[in-house]
Amino acid sequence: MGGLDRPTFHLHYAFAMTVPPGELVMLQDLAQDPVSFQNKSIRATGILTAYNPDSNRAVLEHKGYTLEVATDLLDPFPYKTKDLLQCIGELELISESHQLLLRARVARKVDGLDLDVYEKTIHMRRKYQDMFLKSS
């Protein structure tokens, strides 16, 4: 029986190694240079302002910046407009409009999150990474 457990562990481990973590980004980061984020795995946070179940599309907004989210991998999609959501997934560039589409694989409601503090934390983390991790 012990031999049967081992392959299962390796399958889960292999799957975990192929799914990249989502880079923390603010929606304004995406708007400034959408091409540089193409095909990247990100974690984006914003207010759900629209959702169309027929097309499996949602829109996140923060500080006037928006991001379209494909929700077809998130079935069911139990969230309501005005919920604060954090989505992790991969970005696709819609070539004709140069807009990004986040193909979300994970979404969670984060209504208790203070977005101003969260944004400051992201900036502090980037400073730390620039100072200590990229100089190695």
TrEMBL record:
Pfam families: Ten1_2. InterPro entries: NA-bd_OB-fold (IPR012340), Ten1_animal_plant (IPR029146). GO terms for molecular function: single-stranded DNA binding; telomerase inhibitor activity; telomeric DNA binding. Gene3D superfamilies: Nucleic acid-binding proteins. It comes from the Eukaryota. Signal peptide: none annotated. GO terms for biological process: negative regulation of telomere maintenance via telomerase. GO terms for cellular component: CST complex. This is CST complex subunit TEN1.
